[in-house]
Structures are given as C-alpha cells and as structure tokens.
Amino acid sequence: MNPEDIRANYRDLLGQVPSNIEKRLALAEAADRTDAIAAIEAWREELLHRNALDRRTQQLVHFAMLIASGEDIPARLHATGALKAGATVRELFGVAETAAITGGMPAFSRAVDIITDAIKQAEI
C-alpha cells in the first residue's frame, strides 16, 4: 500500500486525511520507511475493516472509546466518520449518554460538544 492509497482510505473513511496521518507519512518518507507505514495500515485494515462490525458500528465504537479515554481530537474524527457511515444523531447521543456512565459528566459534556460540531460540519 503506497502513501496515496493510504490517504485515499482515510478520505473514504473520515472525509479527510487527519493531520497525524500526514505527519506519519511525511516522517516515514523522510526516513525511507514507507514499508513500515504500509504494514501498520495493513494491520489496521485487517483489524478494523475485516471484522464483524460494519463501518457505522466501528465508527461509533471508536468514538465511544476515545471519549472514554479523553482523546478529544481523534474522537472528533470518528464522530464525523460515524455520521459519514450512516450513524444517526440519536445513536451518537446514545454514545454520549453511555459516556456519562463510564466517564462522568465531563465525558458526557465533551461528547456533546464534539457531536454538535460534527453535526454542523456535516450540515445535518
């Protein structure tokens, strides 16, 4: 898998190439280690896209796990990815409600902020 294929996969999944992926690709190219990134992406492809979860569910799970762990920047990508994959606002709000149980009101509030921004970005 070459860098352009990797970028195309992220655009398909999230609608954009995250900045951390661009940094990863640039550093690998500078270090002449693009094969290492291709291996990471192949592993990711196998674990995420060839398992029993469909893309919508996978993005909702990603969003939930990232909210619970306090990783707001990637959570934003996966909230948007969930909408792109067909998740409803109700489903995303369900993740926020669940986050209140596992992470308390701070997690719920972060999820609400992120979902609201994702909805605006998706123009729903």
How would the blueprint of this fold be written?
Layout: H1 3-14, H2 19-30, H3 34-49, H4 55-68, H5 72-84, H6 89-122
Overview of this structure, please?
By secondary structure, the protein is mainly alpha-helical. The protein has two domains: 3-49, no CATH class; 55-122, Up-down Bundle (AhpD-like), CATH 1.20.1290.10. It is built from six helices and no strands. It has helices spanning 3-14, 19-30, 34-49, 55-68, 72-84, 89-122. Helix 2 runs antiparallel to helix 3 (34-49) and helix 5 (72-84) crosses helix 6. The termini are far apart. The model has no long low-confidence stretch (mean pLDDT 94).
Quick overview of this protein structure:
With 124 residues, this protein is an all-alpha fold. The protein contains 6 helices and no strands. Helix 2 packs antiparallel against helix 3 (34-49).
CATH superfamily label of the largest domain: AhpD-like
Q: Number of domains in the coordinates?
A: 2
CATH class placement of the largest domain: Mainly Alpha
How many β strands by DSSP? 0
- The assigned CATH architecture of the largest domain is Up-down Bundle
Strand content: under 5%
Q: Helix and strand succession?
A: HHHHHH
What is the typical, i.e. mean, pLDDT? Answer: 94
Distance between termini? Answer: 34 Å
What name does CATH use for the topology of the largest domain? AhpD-like
Roughly how many Å is the radius of gyration?
15 Å
Biggest β-sheet strands, sense, barrel: none
Low-confidence stretches: none
Q: Quick one: overall form?
A: elongated
Structural class: mainly alpha
Give the fraction of residues assigned to helices.
Answer: over 70%
Count, helices: 6
